[in-house]
Amino acid sequence: AAHRVTVLPGDGIGPEITAVALSVLEAAGQAEGETFTFTEALIGGAAYDATGDPYPDATYRACADSDAVLLAAIGGYKWDSLPSASKPETGLLRLRSSLNAFANLRPAKVIPDLADASSLKREVLEGVDLLIVRELVGGIYFGQPRGFGERDGEKVGFSTDIYSESEVERIAHVAFKAARTRSRRLTSVDKANVLEVSQLWREVVTRVGAEYPDVELSHMYVDNAAMQLIRNPRSFDTLVTSNLFGDILSDEAAMLTGSLGMLPSASISNDGPGVFEPVHGSAPDIAGQDKANPLAMVLSAALMCRHGLGIPAVAGRLEAAVAAVLASGVRTGDIAQPGKQTIGCKAMGRALLEA
Ligand code: NAI
Ligand code: MG
User: Fold this and answer.
1) pLDDT tens profile 59-92
2) Which residue has the higher pLDDT, 294 or 182?
3) Cys-Cys with 225: which of 78, 148, 189, 300 at CB 3.0–4.6 Å?
């Protein structure tokens, strides 16, 4: 079958890692008798430069009309001082929100040989395999009121953390279902000792949990979760949390695996296409230098095949290629041990195609 994928290369290293991912995806599809039609569209700074809007309507329509969206990354110094509505980051938030992609799945699995590249102890890292389910379209990143004002004669900034029962319910269902496909342990992370929004979160997750008696539910405060992720990350299997806490904890979990350049994510909706993208940003510090690690992007394409397009065999081929290349010792700079030889983004792409 032909799968319609909207491709959003975005900014910085985005176009470099996209080129690798598409070539590998095409090859893996061919081997399984699957074909893709890739429609490229603009997002982020590139879209702002071309149209004045970081998420143009044409991009929304291309995305809504496809089977899945494959996004690289957005942002860069160049656009940092624009007003909020024009910022690349706003384009990304609007993309996820317009497709109602409310559930962000971020797996973090330690690849034994890569653990050395991180500064944490090997015995703490070995066997880490966790999944963070982050609520993506609500909470403090979208809550109203927000803005700037004045208090006692000085300027203030404010944002609102707010969740409705139904918003918590739907993310809880995704998390319990995901936990069922893993080791049936779910940790819900909140700050219920201080925040009302977290008290509601905890109440609703507990209520939904009654429908999943086979999943062991526990609750943890976010500060403790941040600590346990470093101290004893193996104690976690599936975690579910709000937009803000999930943003921070998933980047923390990312570092357990040795590199942001290795981590894929899926943002899934109950109806329309999902958005599949690496966890990392546009890495403006290395953009255009053929230094980017394309593996998170390739693994995001694999998640897309499995969770968005229903072609797990192609996903398996992509993941196997990544594993084979890593096993052969080939490394981009971000995952190499100091002093060891490294290859560039394009060469990594060729190695993947060979594998
Ligand atoms: P970043 O993830 O772009 O970079 C952090 C560090 O990791 C940098 O040193 C970078 O070189 C390195 N890195 C990231 N991805 C890599 C890869 N694939 N291969 C090798 N090294 C890699 O985060 P940062 O620096 O905080 O943000 C840079 C820009 O990206 C900002 O404009 C930010 O808003 C945007 N951003 C976009 C995201 C997205 O598109 N989903 C997510 C996070 C940040
Ligand atoms: Mg982040």
Assistant:
1) 999 999 999 999 999 999 999 999 999 999 999 9
2) 294
3) 189
Instruction: Give the pLDDT confidence score for residue 178 in this predicted structure.
Output: 87
Instruction: For residue 149, list its beta bridge partners.
Output: 156
What is the spatial distance between Cα 337 and Cα 327, in angstroms, rounded to a whole number? 14
Give the domain-ending residue among 208, 228, 256.
256
Residue 152 known to be catalytic: no
Q: What is the pLDDT of residues 233-276, one digit of tens each?
A: 999 999 999 999 999 999 899 888 877 788 899 999 988 999 99
Q: Atom 4 (ligand 1): residue with closest C-alpha?
A: 283
- Burial of 193 per CB tally in 10 Å (0-12, 13-18, 19+): exposed
Query: Which residue is closest in CA terms to ligand 1's atom 27?
Result: 281
Tell me which residue range forms the domain holding 151: 129-256
CA-based nearest residue to 29, from 347, 268, 353: 353
- pLDDT confidence tier of residue 127, bands split at 50, 70 and 90: confident
184 shares a domain with 79: no
Q: What is the CATH number of the domain that holds 202?
A: 3.40.718.10
Tell me the best of 280, 285, 298, 345 to mutate to test the pocket of ligand 1, counting ligand atoms within 8 Å of each CB and taking the most.
Answer: 280
Does residue 247 have an active-site annotation? yes
The atom of ligand 1 lying closest to the CA of 77 is 32
Number of Cβ within 10 Å of residue 231's Cβ equals 10
